Amino acid sequence: MRLAGKKIVLGLTGGIACYKVAELTRGLTKAGASVHIVMTQSATQFITPVTMQALSGNTVYTDQWDARIPNNMPHIDLTRGADAIVIAPCSTNFIAKLAHGACDDLLSTLCVARPHHVPLLIAPAMNVEMWLNPATQRNVTQVKADGIKVLGPAAGEQACGEVGMGRMLEADQLLTEIIASFQAKTLAGKSVLITAGPTFEPIDPVRGITNLSSGKMGYAIAQAAWEAGADVTLISGPTALDAPYGVRKVQTQTAQQMHDAVMVELAAHHQHVFIAVAAVADWRVANASSQKIKKTSDSDTPQLQFAQNPDILASVAALAEPPYCVGFAAESENLLEYGAVKRAKKNVPLLVGNIGHHTFGKDENELVLFDVNGHKALPRADKHTLAIQLIQEITQRISK
Ligand code: CTP
């Protein structure tokens, strides 16, 4: 319920992307927001007010002269007490109106009449040529300069059959952007590099050694760092998860590949923070076969030999000018004792301990943070909540 208690005025203008806003409305209400829909006449050509009222559970407004508002001033009353106004889809014409402060229908008038502290977010949706038109680009530059947040658009196939920039973001991406807009940008201007998930060490072309890490904790931390305004790169082992929105993901398989990808990123960009969440295999199979190993007889078993993998976290911490390094420790018992010892051994300022088999693959976790001052528990919660708390803890430490 990331939007619990938030009042969102959701404006729809004319565009085929109106169909995506039905799903966005569901997402917003499920996240705890109360959603108040305002539609232009053009928007009602694409989706009905009946649908939007049923989904939002609130009266839908389309008319500047709507007498259901006691003082007959919907352009004022609807945004009072609002936490944000979101226009999705936002047409070429509506961007032009915003850029010039036009007030010729309820939605445009309501935007101009909004209290100055209520943020306005727009999700453009239009044909590629309309997006690229110099007048549109001029208007987009103007609305950004006026403090309006522009979400997207994305590139891709369009309803008209043409391909290019101008597609509205998907409903889940818009929801993520709206949630993120309420987060303090405490990591703005900072780059954060994260490893996540398990590694997979081949035995032969069809078999390998891996572990039960799902990647959920690392991906949630990447999402929380992006929400806090950071530029985030996620080096992931094999997981079933999509890259978090806004995060650049580099896919790897083995510990060696993960190590090499981390070193490439560190050489390419200055990274302020490195968070090693991945459950990296300590050993790889030294005599992996390039062909599938066959069972030749009932008594025959393959003889695997192991070689040690590089310790990614220790290698980064040992650099001449390391980023602020955060390690994870997945223990099976004695967390308080082993966590403190591991922090010293890995030589990192912050180590996050958890009980591996209590968390791998689950949506919840509990963490213990170890630093030079001792330890601090973050009680059991879902991984997104813990990720936000951990990012706050890291931010406090790097700001000192
Ligand atoms: N780690 C790493 N590279 C490795 C092994 C571990 O970067 N080859 C990182 C993990 O991402 C984690 C931390 O080191 O942040 C701790 O990993 P863990 O496996 O729990 O500790 P180990 O040092 O391997 O100790 P042990 O397995 O003996 O508990």
List cofactors, ions and other ligands. Answer: cytidine-5'-triphosphate
| Count of structural domains | 2
Question: Which CATH C-level class of the largest domain is it?
Answer: Alpha Beta
Mean pLDDT: 95
- Residue share in helix: 25-40%
Give the overall shape: elongated
The number of helices is 14
The biggest beta sheet is recorded as: 8 strands, mixed
**For the largest beta sheet, what order do the strands appear in spatially?**
12-11-8-13-16-17-18-19
Q: Give the C-alpha Rg.
A: 25 Å
CATH superfamily of the largest domain: CoaB-like
- pLDDT < 50 runs, ≥5 residues: none
Content-based structural category: alpha/beta
Gross CATH architecture of the largest domain: 3-Layer(aba) Sandwich
Beta-strand share of residues: 15-25%
CATH topology of the largest domain: Rossmann fold
